[in-house]
Specification:
This protein has 94 residues and is mainly α. The protein has one domain (9-87): 434 Repressor (Amino-terminal Domain), CATH 1.10.260.40. The chain has helices at 11-23, 27-34, 38-45, 53-63, 67-80, 84-87. Helix 2 (27-34) packs across helix 3 (38-45) and helix 4 (53-63) packs across helix 5 (67-80). The longest helix has 14 residues, at 67-80. It is elongated, with a radius of gyration of 16 Å. The termini are far apart. 19% of the residues are buried.
Length: 94
């Protein structure tokens, strides 16, 4: 059974669904505004590329948000994406 905790949006989905689509901004237009290739923006939007500190700063400036907002989304996504089995058998050292 899928729960709300099982549904993890990528930062790119949030970028598209909460910013680009409602504001009528195309991926191409965002790419031009931040001076980066449209292919890179597309990869972020489609969840195939992480938002780096550089991209976070550029996207934040272009959309009137902070770099920290985008980095926190990315960090949260990465942490929620870790398979609990990966860390299950790690011994606590402290």
């Amino acid at each position: 059974m899928t729960t709300i905790d099982d549904i993890v949006s990528t930062p790119g989905e949030i970028l598209r669904e909460e910013f680009l689509d409602p504001l009528g901004i195309s991926q191409y237009r965002l790419a031009k505004a931040i001076g980066k290739p449209q292919s890179a923006v597309s990869e972020i939007v489609n969840g195939r590329r992480a938002i780096t500190a550089e991209y976070a700063a550029l996207i934040g400036k272009a959309l009137g948000t902070s770099a920290e907002f985008w980095l926190r989304l990315e960090e949260g996504y990465r942490l929620r994406s870790v398979d609990p089995e990966t860390v299950k058998h790690v011994a606590c050292l402290v």
